[in-house]
Amino acid sequence: VVGDYFLPACSDLTSLQLPSGLTAVGRNFLVGCTGLTILQLPSGLTTVDDRFLFGCTDLTAIAIGRNFPQQVADDLRVRLPRVQIAREDR
């Protein structure tokens, strides 16, 4: 589990691959990380906050694991229409 306010407004971060054992992220995870362009989320990640990735304006691609919650993926597609979200079998 990653706690609340993990790396808020980290404009220097451009890509991030989260560890495979991660199952949940806290409130405001990576909020305002404007430099983030690519994010890889593990298949075990099943719990995220509704402000997940809020304000990550440069994000272009998210790779999500097979167990990533469909409702969250759908919400991300609505909130981040320019971001390519691809489900991976990992």
E-strand count: 4
What value does the average pLDDT take?
Answer: 84
Amount of beta strand: 15-25%
Q: Give me the side-by-side strand order of the main sheet.
A: 1-2-3-4
Compute the CA-based radius of gyration. Answer: 12 Å
- Helix/strand order, N-terminal first: EEEHE
Number of helices: 1
> Biggest β-sheet: count, sense, barrel?
4 strands, parallel
Shape: globular
Helix content: 10-25%
State the end-to-end CA separation.
19 Å
Structural class: alpha/beta
Unreliably modeled segments: none
Describe the structure.
The protein has a four-stranded parallel beta sheet with strand order 1-2-3-4, with helices on one face. It is 11% helix and 16% strand. It has one helix and four strands; from the N terminus they run βββαβ. The radius of gyration is 12 Å and the shape is globular. It is of the alpha/beta class and 90 residues long. The protein has one helix spanning 70-79, and strands spanning 15-17, 38-40, 61-64, 84-87. The longest helix is centred in the C-terminal third of the chain and has 10 residues, at 70-79. The model has no long low-confidence stretch (mean pLDDT 84).
